[in-house]
Amino acid sequence: MKKFTWGFLFLSGAALTINALTYLNFDPRYGFLKIKEQAVASGYYLPFYYTHVIIGGLILLVGFVQVSTWFRSKWTKLHRMLGKFYVYGVLFFAAPGGLVMSFFVDRGLAVLISFLAQTALWVYFTSAAVIKIKRGKIAEHEVWMWRSFSLTLAAIALRLYIFFASYFFDLSQPIAYAIIAWASWVPNWLAVEFYFRDRRILPTKQV
Nearest-CA neighbor of 184 among 156, 164, 165, 163? Predict the structure, then answer.
């Protein structure tokens, strides 16, 4: 079951990454951008959209590799290189892009708060992971990276929930979209917390 779940998530992530890379055509009327005409007209939405979507798609796949115990032990140097790409991608591209995009999501205050909270925690978790590894605390670094990656996986969860929920609910209603927005990342994060608490690893008091 575990292998099936991770296989499904990886394939979903790969599909999401491939779709993200199609935006390298930089056509402001392509795909999702067709319904964001007002945002595009603002003049500063597009740069943040491209950095969030394209870099976000890449770090999603990198994240799957980075959390692999086998990969970390077999390819230590490459793990470090990809780790830097992941960190820089989150902190300087994907997270800032997501932050700006949040203000163009006209789905109500609850959705905005969800996206802002997710972005803030994404930056915090990723930064904490960097601090831990610089201090040589490898086990704690791993936990913080899992926390960060749990929020990266929200990209998959959000789209899956929207796809399935659209058949049963009216997503034009703010409450429906708000539930999906929060559900796309909070359960992921909680799953990581429960998993590592069972392993008696609790690096939450100090960063």
Answer: 156
Tokens 């067709």 sit at which residue?
34
Cα(26)–Cα(1) distance, integer angstroms:
39
Every domain of the chain and the residues it spans: 2-198
Longest CA–CA separation in the chain, Å: 51
SS3 1: coil
pLDDT digits (tens, 9 = 90+) for 39-72: 999 989 999 999 999 999 999 999 999 988 888 8
93: DSSP letter: I
Compute the C-alpha angle 54/57/59, nearest 5°: 110
Dump pLDDT digits (tens) for 115-137: 999 999 999 999 999 999 999 99
Rounded to whole angstroms, the Cα distance separating 121 from 193 reads 14
Q: Which two tokens stand for residue 173?
A: 């209603």
What is the three-class DSSP state of 146? helix
Q: Using CA atoms, how far apart are residues 100 and 53, in angstroms rounded to an integer?
A: 12
| Residue whose C-alpha is closest to residue 66's, from 88, 91, 90, 86 | 86
Q: Which of 130, 137, 105 is nearest to 118 (CA)?
A: 105
